[in-house]
Amino acid sequence: MRSRKLRVTTGVAIFGVATLVLTSCSGTTNASSTDGSFEVTAASLEGAPTFDPVMYMNGAAYDYAAAAYETLVMYDDEGNLLPGIATAWEYTTPTEMTMDIRTDVVFEDGSGLDAELVAANLERYRTTPGTYQARLNSIDTITVVDEDSLSLTLNTADQSLPQAFSLSVGMMVSQAAIDDPDLLLTDTYGSGPWVLDSYAEDSEYHYIRNPEYSGPLDVAVDELNFTVITDLTAQLNALLAGDVDLISAQWSQRETAEAQGFAALSSESNVGGIWLFDRAGAVVPALADVRVRQAINYAIDREAVGTALWSEYQRPSSAVFGIYTTAYEESLDDYYEYDPERAMELLAEAGYPDGFDLPILARSMFGEIQRLEAALPYLEAIGINATVEDRTNDYFDAMTNQEYGAAQGQQNGGTNSYVNMSNMLAPNAQLNPFETVDPALTALIQDAAGELEEDAAATKWQAVNEWVVENAWFAPVAFYHTHTAWNDDKLDGVSFAAGQTYPLPFEWRPAGE
User: Fold this and answer.
1) What is the pLDDT of residues 265-280, one digit of tens each?
2) What residues have CB less than 8 Å from 229, skipping those under 6 apart?
3) CA of 288: how far to CAs of 280, 292, 346, 436, in Å?
C-alpha cells in the first residue's frame, strides 16, 4: 500500500493499510465510516496507469483523474457544456477563441492558478504525447491576455476545443507538476473535489474530500474508494455480496442485479460494427467499389444481430455519428434496411457475382470477436467469404500497417461532430488507416467546421453524416448501451454523463437525501 502525507488540512479520517483493505474487501459496506462521513466503494475494471492526466483514456481509468482534477469545461448528462475553471469562452472567428478563467482555484499543494498556469498546462498537453494530444493539434499559439483570460489562435477551424477541455486535456495541474511531471506518476496535483490519500497499485485506491475545492460541483462523497476487479462477473458477485456499492455490467448482469433488488441504468455509448478501411482497394480490391461496400451494409440484419448481442439495450443504425452529436440524423439509422437480394445484385453489378475473400481484423477484447462471428453468416449468405483474423496482441499495429481492408471494432458515439470526424474520417484518423481522402467529403467537412452559427453548423454536419453513409465507409450494426448497477439502499444520484461509459462520482448522494 502506498500512502502519502496530506498536503491539505482535513477533518476526514486517514485510513491505514489494514483499515483500507477492510473497507474495500469486507463482506459489507456501510453508508458512512465511524466518523460519520459518507463513503462509497466502486468497482473498476482497471487500475490507474498513472496520475498524470496526459495519459488518461476514457473508460474505467478516467475516474481516477476526474476525482482529483478540475477541468476547464464541464458537461451534463445531455452533453451541454458548462463552466468549470473556465467561466466563459467564445469563438470570435472560426480560428480565434478567447477564454476567461476563475482565479479562486487552490490546488491541493496550496498553490493558486492564473492564466499563465492555464497556458502552461495547455502547452504541455499540446506538446506531450498522450491519449488526447491530437485534440489540440489545431492550436497554433496561446496568448495570455491578463491574469484571468487568454486567447487561442488556431491553424484551422476547430469548434471542438471546448468539448476537448472537458476531457483530460482540460484538467489543470499545479505549477509543481508542470515543473516536474514525474511527480504525477505516483500522486495527484489537482484542485478537484477529492484528493488521493493512499493506494495499492492495480488493487485499491482511496480518495478523500478536498476541503480547498472551490469549483461549481456540490459533492457529497467524503471518502471515495475504487476497487480493481477486472472481470464483470466478479464485479457482479462483489455487488451482491456487499463488497462494493457500484459496478459496471453487461446487460445480462444488469438484469441479474435488478432481479436481486439492486438499481441499474444504462446509456447509449458505443457503436459496434465492421469498419471498411480499404476504400481504394489496396489490400482487398473489391472494397474500392462503393457498390460492394453498400452490399455489405444491405447484407446485415442489424436488428437481429443487435438484439442477439445486446438484447433491448441497443439501437440499430447505418450511421456512426451518435445521438449526442449535431450530425445525428434519425432517418439515416435505417438507410440500409436488411435486403440480401439487393446486396447480391450490387455485388453482381460490381463484378463479384461469386463474392470474394474478406479477412477481417479482430481482437478478443470487449467481445469484438463474438460480435464479428454474429455478423459473418450474413456476409456468407451473399457469397462473401469473411474470416476472423484474431490479432489481439497487435491489433492497432495491424490496423496502422494497412494489413487488413476491414476490421471489427467499436467507437464511442461521441458528443461532438468535429471530434467524431477527427477520429473516423480525417486522413490521419485512427479509423482511417489507409488515409482515404475524397474531395467531396473534404469540402463538406471544411464547410461544417468553419460554420459558427449553431443551427447552420448542425445542418452541415448532417450532410457529412449522410455522405459517409451513402458512400458506405463503414458497416455499423448498432449503438449499444453501457450499464452500471448499484446498491440504491445506500447510494443515489448515479447517472451517465453524455458519451461517458462509466458513471462519474460527482452527483452521488446518500440514499434518501
Assistant:
1) 998 888 999 999 999 9
2) 43, 44, 45, 235, 238, 244, 247
3) 4, 8, 13, 11
How far apart CA 403 and CA 424 sit, in angstroms, is 18
Q: Rounded CA gap, 403 and 155, in Å? A: 33
**Residue 301 clears pLDDT 60, i.e. is over it:** yes
Grid cell at residue 482 = 453501457
Taking the alpha carbons at both ends of the chain, their separation in whole angstroms is 34
Residue-wise burial string across 64-96, b where 16 or more C-beta atoms lie within 10 A, e elsewhere: bbbbbbbbbbbbebebebebbbbeebebeeebe
**Crossing angle between the packed helical segments 368-381 and 302-310, to the nearest 10 degrees:** 150
Quick one: CATH architecture of 1-60+195-262+487-513? 3-Layer(aba) Sandwich (3.40)
- Rounded CA separation 176/181 (Å): 8
Question: What is the biggest distance separating any 2 CA atoms in the chain, rounded to whole angstroms?
Answer: 75
CATH of the domain spanning 268-480: 3.10.105.10
Q: How far is CA 137 from the centre of its chain?
A: 19
146's enclosing H/E stretch is strand 139-146
Say if CB 480 and CB 313 are below 8 A apart. Answer: yes
C-alpha–C-alpha distance, residues 407 and 429, integer Å: 15
Question: What's the predicted TM-score (pTM) here?
Answer: 0.81
Annotated domain spans of the chain: 1-60+195-262+487-513, 69-191, 268-480
**Whole-Å CA distances, 273 to 119, 146, 290:** 39, 48, 18
The Cα–Cα gap between 294 and 360 comes to 17
Q: pLDDT of 198-244, one tens digit each?
A: 999 999 999 999 999 999 999 999 999 999 999 999 999 999 999 99
CB 117 within 8 A of CB 130: no
Q: What is the pLDDT of residue 58?
A: 62
Round to whole Å and give the CA distance between 414 and 407: 20
Asked whether the domain spanning 69-191 has the same topology as the one spanning 1-60+195-262+487-513, the reply is no
**Given pLDDT bands bounded at 50, 70 and 90, which one contains residue 264?**
very high
pLDDT average, residue stretch 361-383: 90
Instruction: Kindly write down the DSSP assignment for every residue of 317-372, as one continuous string.
Output: -S--S-TTSTT--GGGTTSS---HHHHHHHHHHTT-TT--EEEEEE-SGGGHHHHH
Q: At what angle do helices 251-259 and 232-241 cross, to 10 degrees?
A: 10
Q: Name the percent of the chain lying above pLDDT 90.
A: 72
Q: E strands within 94-138?
A: 96-101
Confidence of residue 31 (pLDDT cuts 50, 70, 90): very low
Distance between CA 78 and CA 66 in Å, rounded?
A: 18
- What CATH number does domain 69-191 carry, 3.30.70.360, 3.40.50.2000, 3.90.180.10, 3.90.76.10? 3.90.76.10
Q: Which three cell numbers stand for residue 132?
A: 488526447
304-316 mean pLDDT: 94
